[in-house]
Amino acid sequence: MADAVGERDASAHTPCLYLDPGVAVERYEQLRAAFADTDSYYAVKANPEPRLIRRLVRAGAFFDVASPAEIALCLAEGADPSRLSYGNTVKKASDIRHAYRSGVRLFVFDSQDELLKLAEHAPGSAVFCRLLASSAGAQWPLSGKFGCTPEMAVDLLTQAPRLGLRPVGVSFHVGSQQLDPGRWEPSVATAAWVSGELAAASIELTMLNVGGGFPVEYTSPVPPIERYADAIAAAVGRHFGTQPRLATEPGRYVAAVAGVLRTEVVLVSRKTFDDDTRWVYLDVGRFGGLAETEGEAIRYRLVTPHDGRPDGAVVLAGPTCDSVDILYQRAEYRLPLALRQGDVVDILAAGAYTTTYASVGFNGFPPLPTVCIGDDE
Amino acid sequence: MADAVGERDASAHTPCLYLDPGVAVERYEQLRAAFADTDSYYAVKANPEPRLIRRLVRAGAFFDVASPAEIALCLAEGADPSRLSYGNTVKKASDIRHAYRSGVRLFVFDSQDELLKLAEHAPGSAVFCRLLASSAGAQWPLSGKFGCTPEMAVDLLTQAPRLGLRPVGVSFHVGSQQLDPGRWEPSVATAAWVSGELAAASIELTMLNVGGGFPVEYTSPVPPIERYADAIAAAVGRHFGTQPRLATEPGRYVAAVAGVLRTEVVLVSRKTFDDDTRWVYLDVGRFGGLAETEGEAIRYRLVTPHDGRPDGAVVLAGPTCDSVDILYQRAEYRLPLALRQGDVVDILAAGAYTTTYASVGFNGFPPLPTVCIGDDE
């Protein structure tokens, strides 16, 4: 991908995300091959670039959507509404109505009030109940905000048929960029318990949505996707009697490596005469698309024109007048001593969770644009 | 302001920032009265709403700008370029050229390379050198990213005349929402030392930019602006021989109380049967404009239709499928037990550092719009 961007674009306006939708489709197909007999819902929020969505539609993908705008996007790019799952557990009644009118018939909830909203505004739909799950081991954790206890899930799923909804399964998410393939098993076991309780009430749950979280290689190696698929299949085999059909929600795994964020060095400076640490300011920062550097959680790999030459310690920061707009201060990044203002720096595997996080114009800097590269089938 | 929004708008689309530019002008004039004989540069980044800028131009304001877009905005609304200070210490060469061509002749720097860029692309301009400053006591701290040591400031300011630039003073910033009026004095003392060193080299610095940071009442009382003006004037009197002309850079102080962010409750839920803490999800969150709730730093005051009735503990969160999109989990917020989905919740003093932080469309949610209210003179 870094090569694909090429030298010819080195003088193009920065910052800019160069995205190759074909690479994302390859990644989706790789994941689909690893997870046999699984419905893989691409998490549109990771990167909603229309040309990427169009390519995934043609590849037969399913889509996990979070809002009316994401639904409209998928349908505009040719997706059938039966391929969409409205996975956000927090939805306005008007948004549920919009989804239902658009043909969406699969929804996720995790609370009493959301279940009642779905019953009223999406009658007859299939529903998943999301479980609280530990996201220990994830670099961008998810615990706390979404999901309910297994006991509450049993209660709510048991109510669903009486409310005119069709309970199909439970879902959970073990946290994004999850490095440990073994982290799914505790939630699989909990899901099996919930399914067993429902079966005892003569309600058969046929599906299990194991979420996303499959990691991408930024600066450190990660286990291959097959390891995750095998660990999850084994866990399901151990804990479920009747095997449910699996669903996954990959976002980062599909889109990240399809993108390179091309940036420019705005300034290299020192704060004192007696400290060798340089401050390197890029023309993109936490409010221009690199939101996931919050807490230095996601540590991107950087490519400079001087790689391989002598380097030294740096603090990396964005271009705004906001002191929290610092990318890496504790992560001990090193960059070539030859690095100068005006140099291009490529941020690799930046295709997921970047463009849509960008602010509308903090400090007057425009949002991060996308340029699609590669074959446009 | 909460009253000014009024019941008639209760059914309007949310989220939305209701902004009264007249209130912002009153705040600017109140600050200008407290700081006699001071040039007060409104920090455009706090809220760049064009109608607010236009009103401030008519009130004779100065403007602190961070980018070409902010410069273009101020000029379009009628500001004279002599009223602009390009306060961002991290600027592309092309952006300096743009500013210079636009007539801007006042720039801030904090490093050798930035000084050389200014010499090349903004010849003859007046320059401030920014000092590192402690932001202890600030709720949104600024230390580290901006400024240099006093020794480096002396070196750089001494170079300036030889490079064809006009050194006029030093600047510093003690952190946004600074609760302690005494926090300016250490930096004033350092600035006086720098000015003394320059005077010994026959370079007279005539100005001192004491930055912004003047706080706003969110959930806790803050000292009145006069207390800050008096403390700073007294510190300058103690440390400077020849009194410099002062400059300030208020942003939050001017814009915050001019705005009310009207939101809607999307969901009220519990995670377990045995925990009384409710999760309250609003239709705006950290990626929709409330970026300053990061680390629960800025704690806004909320107004609900049920205030005064029995309340209970809540966790407040935004509407996106991102678990860091939580507003307050440790801050022990309490809201009425009667609160339900669909209820309007007004977030007070939300006119600063909200709209421009909003993402272009994370999760497919549109950016935060502004509706101006009050007299449009």
Textual characterization of the structure:
Chains A, B: Its cofactor is pyridoxal 5'-phosphate. Chains A, B: It comes from Couchioplanes caeruleus subsp. caeruleus. Chains A, B: Keywords: Decarboxylase, Lyase, Pyridoxal phosphate. Chains A, B: Pfam families: Orn_Arg_deC_N. Chains A, B: This is ornithine decarboxylase. 2 copies of one chain form a homodimer. Chain A is an alpha/beta fold and 377 residues long. The first copy, chain A, has 2 domains: 2-15 and 256-372, Lyase, Ornithine Decarboxylase, Chain A, domain 1 (Beta Barrel), CATH 2.40.37; 22-255, TIM Barrel (Alpha-Beta Barrel), CATH 3.20.20. Chain A has 10 helices and 19 strands. Chain A has helices spanning 2-5, 21-34, 50-58, 68-76, 93-101, 112-121, 150-162, 185-200, 225-239, 252-255; strands spanning 16-19, 38-43, 62-65, 84-86, 106-109, 126-130, 138-140, 166-171, 176-178, 207-209, 245-248, 259-269, 278-282, 302-303, 311-317, 326-328, 334-336, 344-347, 370-372. In chain A, strands 1, 12, 13, 14, 15, 16, 17, 18 and 19 form a 9-stranded mixed sheet that branches. An 8-stranded parallel sheet of chain A has the order 4-3-2-11-10-8-6-5. In chain A, α2 packs across α3, α7 crosses α8 (185-200) and α8 (185-200) runs parallel beside α9. Chain A starts with a helix and ends in a 5-residue tail after the last strand.
